[in-house]
């Protein structure tokens, strides 16, 4: 009998298994192995309990030990032996348990343990092999295996014992369930023995779940759940199951859903809820830190909670009070899970009976969801919005909460996260599609709902105020029988009573409010009000959706398009705004599948809205409907919208012709459009006009649409209808241009052959008549432009016809007499132009030359300018045609051309080059300067009219003349150079925005043609960025954007003006500026290189913007700068502090510093290295705040960098230290100013005594600065008081630079105040001299200019004597304006007596310094001190700014040490005098 100890056998499996009677398996003959297995089967068939035989047990164990080396057939037989024996043993055991024969069923203990052990061992071996294989495939990358190929070991599975063994494992699990169903407590009375036996079942079950391939087999997974549930409920496995579930959630990514399904089965089938509660309580106590990068664990827990709340919401609801704490945790994944759990709970509760408790729970959950809309993580917000969208599909619509949720979703349309915005759009669309306001068909037309609301409101009002209606309603509610009443008499009385309004009594009002009809109307009114509010929310979201159509995220754009299609389907009128903007997406760049999907989706949207037939209508009605929809697209459309619509419709036509796409426009619709255009009856002009616009758009892709209807266009568009409606004529000309076909010029390809008509074609006759048609409408210019375009596009010799048109106009206007035929524009075809020019000159020079109609002259100049421009294009077409014909001729020749001819062409050039040079010469010299050219006659005329705007003051004439001048300047560089300054003068001084806009656009064209001329004068273009007219500003920005981004002009520090456009009030201008800087960023750090110029420009007093705008601009620009350039930017900004004296400038620079990312230690080192440049500015509150923000930014880096902490702490300590010093200096200055003011009121001695008692920390009593003798500089032209102020300031700056710090600054301020108090007590000789000078100046003022001569002479004499006695110091040349110099020259000067000081060198004698510096009076010193105190710095010298008057300052070349010593001597000498 076998002595089997289960615990020892399980323990032995952890090491190498030793089998006493082991038989050889590896390398044995399969037949011998088959014979051994057959013997085992025969033995077990006799009795399943024979498994306890030691020899047989060792044989079975030998096969299992080498299970992975067995062939598939042998391994399958081993499985079958074990499972069959186990099944037989279970049947016998069940019978003995039923008979309750203790001796019998106790004998089955060892066989059951052996069979359970063998099954446990086999499953462990197979699962270990499968798990390791799956892990190897994951590491090696299963996706890298070629498609259709198999792994090397896949073929071995059929031979070796490495298989999924799904069927065998299912049989084993069924037998486990059968065994666990027995009354095992009778067999195993000891608890630990029973637990050991039970572990043979639940451990393999857990092991099976660890393999994700097994989890995918539903049948196997369900059997595992049953085994575990039986162990948990019947065999005390609850504690072990809870531990294992928590461990599985932490270590296996695929187990959260299976664990939740296990608990759900345990709850629903086995009615055991305790384990789920304990697991949820355990999960609620978990804490997840955001700083931990590994998100696997919180992700597993979140999946578990979400799945469990979906399967068993009632259980989760009980523990929600604990789980809700995760919303306050750091892990966004857990917050995301709790939000989703709440969504499932709301769905569960909404399906239950709506008691007060359930309603309160739902309201509480909705409150939590509304709070989470402000979560700081975008993933949480995205999941929340998705949950709200899922709640829309519930049967319950939650009307009280729906409005608020809609508002919150609309708010997330402006979320900074793309995923949140995208999900918000989808949810908002779902809210619209599931709206509860379907009483009147579900449409959301605001006007219809407002009408319904008004009617119901009026009815309610009538019920209350009109007595007859009130009594009828009350009788109806009371159920009174009215058959026997006098109806006619009562009706008459009611009509009389209704004329008067009377309010009901309280009893009637209560009865009325309780009536069914009144309650119904009240609810109906509330229903309409809610619907109107919902529609208003949709209208509020439309502008935001229009902005999202321009998003760079293509998926977001597609969702926005679906939104507009949806609201159009529900008849929301605001949808037209988005649909019109949507059409611009047709120009999206083709940079991948996303762009194609956007364009394809755009065509689908327009097909659904305008082109799809209605199944409820007939074919004829559908044709009329589609034609009407297409024509309506042109109503009120801008030029940009029409251009985009043309591209869209032509793309639809071309795609349908090429690929047979379902989205197409049928021939019947096109024919219907022609019928609308040629309708003989009077129809609205926009309708006829819209038809030809659409036809012209379609003809862009299919020219036959127009080519077959030329006669109709000539009769309607260029006939009587066109002459009445000039806009119709214009679009008819555009449609005629489609006859030439679409010319898609590809790079490197030859020009295509174009259709040209002879000049005697009726088209040109009609066009000529249309141009000559007399009219005073300004629409004539647009018609004439398109007519000339059509002539040059379709005519063989358009120059002849246009020359005739110009000559005819000249004859009409100037009464010219001509006998010869009219010349053409080309020089070769205008032999008689000299006679015309002579006649024109005679008439122009005559006395009444310009006594003509200015309107006709404007038309003539417009024609001349446009013909000149089109003729240049025509010459280019001729050149391309020449190249095309030459290429065709060359291809017909022999391909093996002689090599010598090739070399000859390379040396002497080709005919093609000569032809090009000839055309260039004609363009440059002949068209505008040739004697035989017609255009040369009009050049001087146009220049004369443009240069004399006061004489030729007609606005239309000036506009036409300036436009013609611009077009002529685009032809010849010489003509452009001669008249460029005139054009700039017009640009600066013209009061017409249209003229300025035309010139700006023309300058952009000139920059392409003559780059050097415009680049040298580009400042004129930048000035227009500050133009008062928005259209001019926008056009200027567009032109500069085009020129800069295409490299046609160089950026020379003028980007500051373009940066100001970022905060322009016009959204179009600001958006265009943002686009410009975004594109400029990709061009070699252009934004970074020009950032110093931008900052200087924005901080300049002439261009200074307010601080809020400055911050917006800088915040946007710094986002565009790359991180690798940030360190050098920190250094540059710190250096700017040295040259900035205004507090506003300090704040601006500090803000720029706070915008930079400080991610490395190097950034803070640069900040510390530049600290001396701004250490005296940190007392400014805003500067200190911005620098403190830098510290907070450095500490907020995650994960924290230990090497950054010391340098951040050092910077913080320095910042606080100098902030405290600065605050102390500010307090001392305030006290000093107060003391000076008191001294001025009480007298000098009292102030001095009060000041003497003021002690300052760090300033020793009786201390005085060291005296040193230095060479003296020549004095400035400023007053001596200003000079001494500068000396004192320089002395204080010098002491600060030497490291004296705050004590030196305080010492200087105190000594300066002492000097001023001393001077206020008694008059000085300098004051007397100043009085004498004032008297002298007053007397000289009567002599007029003599005062200038005398003072200049006096200045020269003094300067000469000073130059003889004072050592000269090199100084930069003065750049003061002349007017300022003259103003200073006439100002009386209060100078000290120079008689004694001129002949002495500068020395250290106190008396000399006293005499020279006593001219400082008290008022000027007090004003200076107050001014500096307000500026926030006591020792800063005032620097003059551009555009403002400034006091003269000391020469910039003075040595700081000399200035400091001189200031000390002045102060000390004044103190000595004060003491005397």
Structure description:
With 1476 residues, the chain is an all-alpha fold. It has 71 helices and no strands. α63 (1244-1252) packs antiparallel against α65.
Key words describing this protein structure:
1476 residues; mainly alpha; 0% strand; elongated; disordered C terminus
First-to-last CA distance: 131 Å
Compute the number of helices: 71
- Which class of secondary structure composition applies to the elements? mainly alpha
Task: Give me the count of strands.
Answer: 0
Mean pLDDT: 77
As a percent range, the share of strand residues is under 5%
Q: Helical amount among residues, as a percent range?
A: 55-70%
What is Rg?
48 Å
Report the principal-axis shape. elongated
Task: Give the quaternary arrangement of the chains.
Answer: single chain
Low-pLDDT parts are 142-162, 480-499, 747-751, 818-850, 1244-1307, 1317-1420, 1427-1460, 1470-1476
Main sheet makeup: none
